[in-house]
């Protein structure tokens, strides 16, 4: 094989950080956490399902920011596109099968990822941030203007998913949506782990480390990043589709800049460049936010801010990144 083949380029620049056995540990941890969550919050499964949907969004941010080094503050555009695609499929075209709605969400997210990638990848550094913010605002305004399709500021309603596999109905308790969310998360996590260790995934890590060297070796940096943006859009779209199925309504807040910024904060909290960090950061942020806002509704933002400042100052690699670093040090000793 040619030395300039992308697979060889990736092998020269980047290597996976964790062994394949960690994948099964991660899957086991997801299953265990799902069981614990069901036992601890049997009457609040809607919150846990919402957490799973946002985990998908943060994982998608990690793919382009943590793995590829592309700065973005507009990834809610991909999540919202998936949510609206699933909602429109159900409300306007009568496609109410949950699996089909998830597929529609993934397709909508992929298209949004393609559009966003073509625009954002034209810039560099701060320019990418500005372009990504412009993209999410444009998506938000477009959804608001076509109110006949999206419901505008009132939101898209009349979303009534049919029973999963024709048997398991989506009830007020949210059990079916929660189980569907866990299944989707396991599948997405497994596939992304395979992707991160593939030649394509290692090539993306190489681009993050030294894009000039990768280009000099013959790989197309722009095309590789665009492909990852599309994959990222699919992941975010799955999360958006799950959110549409779970809540049975899609609002403009799913396309907000605030959601994009929160997703980036969750990723930094857990640790960039690691799928585990994205999951841990999202779960910690959202559950802590829910608990603190209920316990102290007047000052919970101050408490959240203090938590984030403490993590950035004392655990700059995030919760998972710092824990992994400490574990590696102890193992070497």
From TrEMBL:
CDD domains in the cross-refs: TM_PBP1_LivM_like (cd06581)
Keyword Coiled coil: no
Taxonomic superkingdom: Bacteria
Transmembrane regions listed in the UniProt entry: 24-41, 47-70, 77-95, 101-121, 172-192, 229-252, 264-288, 300-327
Protein's UniProt keywords contain ATP-binding: no
UniProt keywords, alphabetically: Cell membrane, Membrane, Transmembrane, Transmembrane helix
Membrane topology: Multi-pass membrane protein
GO molecular function: branched-chain amino acid transmembrane transporter activity
Compartmental location: Cell membrane
Record's GO cellular component terms: plasma membrane
Protein name as it appears in the record: Branched-chain amino acid ABC transporter permease
Protein species of origin: Mesorhizobium waimense
């Amino acid at each position: 094989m040619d030395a300039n083949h992308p697979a060889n380029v990736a092998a020269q620049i980047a290597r996976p950080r964790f062994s394949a056995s960690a994948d099964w540990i991660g899957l086991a941890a997801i299953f265990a956490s799902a069981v614990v969550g069901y036992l601890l919050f049997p009457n609040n499964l809607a919150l846990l399902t919402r957490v799973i949907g946002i985990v998908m969004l943060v994982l998608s941010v990690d793919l382009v920011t943590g793995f590829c080094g592309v700065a973005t503050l507009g990834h809610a555009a991909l999540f919202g596109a998936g949510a609206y695609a699933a909602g429109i499929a159900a409300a306007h075209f009568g496609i109410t099968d949950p699996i089909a709605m998830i597929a529609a969400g993934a397709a909508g997210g992929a298209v949004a990822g393609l559009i966003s990638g073509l625009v954002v990848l034209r810039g560099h550094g701060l320019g990418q941030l500005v372009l990504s913010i412009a993209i999410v605002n444009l998506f938000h305004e477009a959804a608001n203007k076509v109110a006949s399709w999206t419901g505008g500021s009132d939101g898209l309603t009349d979303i009534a998913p049919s029973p999963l596999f024709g048997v398991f109905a989506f009830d007020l308790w949210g059990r079916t949506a929660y189980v569907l969310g866990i299944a989707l998360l396991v599948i997405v996590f497994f596939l992304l782990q395979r992707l991160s260790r593939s030649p394509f995934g290692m090539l993306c890590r190489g681009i993050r480390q030294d894009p000039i060297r990768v280009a000099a070796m013959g790989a197309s940096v722009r095309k590789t990043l665009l492909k990852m943006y599309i994959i990222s859009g699919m992941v975010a779209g799955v999360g958006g589709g799950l959110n549409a199925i779970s809540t049975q309504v899609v609002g403009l807040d799913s396309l907000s800049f605030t959601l994009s910024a929160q997703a980036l904060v969750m990723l930094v909290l857990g640790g960039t460049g690691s799928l585990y960090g994205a999951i841990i950061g999202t779960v910690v942020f959202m559950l802590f936010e829910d608990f603190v806002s209920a316990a102290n509704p007047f000052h919970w933002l101050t408490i959240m801010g203090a938590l984030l400042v403490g993590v950035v100052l004392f655990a700059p690699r995030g919760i998972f990144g710092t824990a992994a670093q400490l574990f590696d040090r102890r193992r070497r000793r």
